[in-house]
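Async update (no meeting this week)

Hi team, since we skipped the sync, here's where things stand on the single-chain job. The sequence we agreed to prioritize is pasted below, unchanged from the tracker. I ran it this morning and attached the output directly underneath so nobody has to dig for it. Comments welcome in thread, and please keep replies under the output.
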Amino acid sequence: MLKPLQWRRPEILLLLLALAMPLSFGVWQALLNNFVIERAQFTGAEIGLLQSVREIPGFLAFTVVFVLLLVREQRLAFISLIATGAGVAITGFFPSTLGLLCTTLLMSVGFHYYEALKTSLALQWLPKETSAIWLGRIMAAGSFASLAAYGLVWLAAEKLQLDYTWIYLIGGGLTVLLVAALWLAFPAFPQPHVQHKKIILRKRYWLYYALTFMSGARRQIFVVFAGFLMVEKFGYSVAEVAQLFIANHLLNLYLAPKIGRFIVRFGERRALTVEYIGLIVVFGGYALVETATAAAVLYIIDHLFFSMAIAIKTYFQKIVDERDIASSAAVSFTINHIAAVIIPVAFGLMWLVSPAAVFWCGAAMAAGSLLLAQNIPALPAAGNEVRWGRVAAPGATA
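Output:
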């Protein structure tokens, strides 16, 4: 039998899938705040509701385990990405609260299933010793595609004066076309370990679950309210929001692989410590900021710190039973989205009273994550999952 072409390898497929997702989601994200304010007259309450609905499929991501009884992981990843692109492509045709809730739900089901599957496949296919480096490269590939998406938004909105409908259609369509091409071009890769097809929750993974939960909670402050602040308080246009995202991803394209190497060299605990201290400062800055330029600087720094969340995945890869990866990746997405379903609505109402209070809550969440991260051992492994609260495996060091 002929060997596959050299480029037809699992890690290359992961890189190319990472390119496909932002072509649609980046367009959706860059246009969202302006689209809902201009076309659907959203306030903080409606944007909070929309974002909570968007997170419901993330909360239900554990159901991917049952779908895997019928569809292989790699194939389901393709299907999920196509659903994401389709949801984005039709968004511009439904500029109403109900229409946006429906198209966002379709996009979000595909997005969250894909993200759970991407994590599972990466942790199965990538070697533990260098997975942080590869995850950094995958993140950089996503940033490159995001640059293309935001560049498309800027060009279409600022230079070509295209309507929102066409920009959404182009972005979503590109994802669908690319994924269809990858489906045809790549073989079905074998899985190194047969995965459990049931829900797995283990006591020894408790720190990973806690870090994942806090990550989902505080991330909503950035995803939902930091961008909304730019438009509502500082009047950023579609083109200016796109330019801000471009700056984010230019830096991420350069720094994400270096962050992966930093994690390999210094370990997960130090990387997460840097991230959480930085986020405390950034969220406090959002609460106090009074100029558009300062807010933009905070937004860019905020985005860079989130790149260090790679360390949560590599920590888990080192402590997990390899047969648990697919199930645990799905369950972790549900845990990540428990708070994510509640926070946008609750904090959207808080926003109406005090936007600063929303960001101070984010700073408190980052502080809680900082405390949890100190419990990660220097050499995580099965039997040495935490520094305190469990007897370390023989020979392991904290």
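Quick observations from my side:
Residues 10-39 form the longest helix (30 residues).
The two ends are 48 Å apart (CA to CA).
Reply here if anything looks off.
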